[in-house]
Amino acid sequence: MMDPKIQYRLRKAARQMLLYLVVLTITLVIMTPVYFITVLSFLTTREAYEYPLPLYPTFTIRMKMERGKRGYLLSVWDRNEQAYVSVLDTDDADKMRVYMETYLGLKPSNEQVTEVMQKVDATGGQPVYFAWRRHILSNYATFFRVTRDAVPALIRSLQIAALTIAISLSIGGAAGYAFARYRFYGKNALKFSVLFVRMFPGVAIAIPMVIILARIGLYDRPAGLSLLYSVGVIGMTVWITASIFMAIPVSLEEAAMVFGATRLQAFLRITLPLAFPGLAAAAMYAFIGAWNETVAAIILTEFNPTFSVVVYQTLLGATGQVNLTAAGGMAMALPAVVFTFFIRRYIHQMWGGVTV
Amino acid sequence: MAEVQLINLTKRFGRRVLAVDHIHLTVKDREFLVLLGPSGCGKTTTLRMIAGLEEVSEGTILIDGEDVTYLPPRARNVSMVFQNYAVWPHMTVYENIAYPLRLKKVPRDEIDRRVKEVAELTKIAELLDRYPSQLSGGQQQRVALARAIAVKPKVFLMDEPLSNLDAKLRVHMRTELKAIHHQTQATTIFVTHDQSEAMSMADRIVVMREGRIEQVGTPEEVYEKSANMFVASFIGLPPTNFFYTEVRRENDALKLVHPYFTLTLSPEQAARLKDYTKSRLVLGVRPENLLLTTEDQALFSVEAMVVEPQGSHQIIAFQMDDQIVKIVAPAYPKVWPGERIHVTFRPERIRFFDPETQQAVGDEA
Ligand SMILES: Nc1ncnc2c1ncn2[C@@H]1O[C@H](COP(=O)(O)OP(=O)(O)OP(=O)(O)O)[C@@H](O)[C@H]1O
Ligand SMILES: [Mg+2]
Question: Which residues in chain B are classed under CATH 3.40.50.300?
């Protein structure tokens, strides 16, 4: 028989191990797409279409140039093959420069390319090996260069997100407060119906919305989109805020009123600050809902696309490059991440880490 | 400072619940009045109506003669200690006390002075920078109290403010509350369902049941001159023992016949009951007025069933048919379960009740 104490410890260790394993698996599952989009956004176009996809990007491109059949033969080091792979045979320096720019993320001048060609000539056709560094953010720079309207679209998306937060939080928050504090006829039916709109696919709502928004002159305008997003988000906002307000004891407000506050003062000075963490969560939800939405935005915009539409468009047509899309996607995630961290920090700082 | 009058005050919740049922009550200036009653009898509702937190269904509330029935809470100049403290968690102790003063537009340096003063009074001076979550229950309690005192209200309302404290702190806070009342002299209405709290603190006690007032009186009055059987059994631990008897009238003498004993009343008692004509009468005897005695002096003898030693005294329970009767006796001589005990009444402390109306009868006018 084993010592029961050791047995107990072993069992405990096994349990712990299992827990870590589960947590690790979940983390992996969640993080894998994030990891790949991050890596993808830094890969060169050539690397992006390699299989299997490289696990990390390279910023130094090793190349070889030698005499070719038509002129100069350019080869690039391939990590999978562990060899130089020929990619282009031309005597046109400009053509070679464009290739380097498009597929290798390099930005050489024609003179630099010509210089290498001259070296090949000087060695009498012997291969010339050289390695050039490319800029870390070359994909990002390219993304913003090729999609001319990315910056205005970004600003538009920010406006839409802010407006969505404002609309959904003021209307949804007021409704949530009413649900939490007052008893009225048909409350439950109403509470259910605010979630009802979420049960339709976004496209199904977007198409009739085009007609409505066009009628009221909001088609292809940020206000129109935020109106649509608010409709979708408000249901959740009502539920989130209602549960927050329910968690704040009425007696806190009543105490304020007994001690001289009006109903409004009691709300503004007592309930609102206490609800802030929850309201921030609701705001975050609204922000993400508005920020990431693409389908309805494609339908409801024409000349004034949102940022997500611009990112989507980089996938289309002959210029479609997944690494640029990834860079755009990363650029898009950044504000959401910053916003989230900012709010989290703020929530944690309040009242010495106190939650209600 | 202030007198509170409740005239015909009534509160209905929906059509069915009559939480407060046409009560009349005058709380005197500077009085410490305790509302006492079992759970759900309408104490909180009454208090909330006085505070203006609950709409009045019927009746009038006067504070210092002024009708405040339909004034908002802030216009009534009352302050309240809530059952769950209701200190604001996002404000420090200092801000908790200062905020009501700021609402009342008290000048800044006056606020500071008053906060320090009440913090001293409630012994929380060294906690002023803390948030409520960093305080113990008893400390939060005192913050709620300090906040209520600082506004110098006309009327103090306290809803079971000691109910969440441990037994020792509760007894300690009773004393502090009385001291604070003595110092501030504010008219106070204090709600509790703990009768020992009521007995120890009240100038007068209001005993409530099902939305109605059963008796108003000093602690001695409600204890010794309970107006009806409900009060007699609700006040006192263990409660009053009731003996249902037949009345026998022989000449001028009055005899009460119980299956276990026959009690002959003294001439004075008989005289007080001379207007009572019904044939049945309930005897109410408090446990400490049942005396252990010798066999020849005993009114009746029974077998002790359970004995609970309490240190300073012992509680002896015995059975009479299907009724349990309790005696509070001195700790010595010790009584053992199963022992035969001889019992008599302290004759001058017996109370009489009409079994039909449940009201006390035979009190001197
Ligand atoms: N908002 C309400 N809606 C319906 N009924 C209510 C409401 N508030 C109180 N009541 C009812 O009114 C009656 C009196 O309630 P109240 O809270 O005044 O009792 P209480 O004496 O304070 O009891 P406790 O000692 O348990 O606090 C109870 O029967 C209660 O169920
Ligand atoms: Mg109550």
Answer: 4-234
Task: Report the predicted TM-score, pTM, of the whole model to 2 decimal places.
Answer: 0.77
Q: Which residue has the higher pLDDT, A155 or A350?
A: A155
Best of A181, A182, A259, A351 to disrupt the B interface (most B CBs within 10 Å) is A259
Query: What is the CATH code for B241-361?
Result: 2.40.50.140
Distance CA A46, CA A102 (A): 9
Instruction: Identify the bridge partners of residue A129 per DSSP, sorted by sequence position.
Output: A64
**Which candidate from B53, B73, B88 shows the least CB-CB separation from A252?**
B88
Fold of A144-353: MetI-like fold (1.10.3720)
CA-closest candidate to residue B354, choices B227, B207, B217, B216: B227
Residue B61 backbone phi and psi in degrees, to 5: -120, 125
- Measured CA to CA, the distance from residue B286 to residue B289 in angstroms comes to 5
Whether ligand 1 lies within 6 angstroms of the CB of B42 is answered as yes
pLDDT of residue A352: 46
Structure tokens at B284: 């109410």
Judge residue B60's burial from the number of C-beta atoms within 10 Å of its C-beta, 0-12 exposed, 13-18 middle, 19 or more buried.
Answer: middle
Distance from C-alpha of B204 to C-alpha of B209, rounded to nearest angstrom: 17
Q: Is the dihedral angle over the CA atoms A267, A268, A273, A275 positive or is it negative?
A: positive
pLDDT in tens, B223-265: 999 999 999 999 988 999 999 999 988 877 889 999 999 999 8
ipTM entry: 0.82
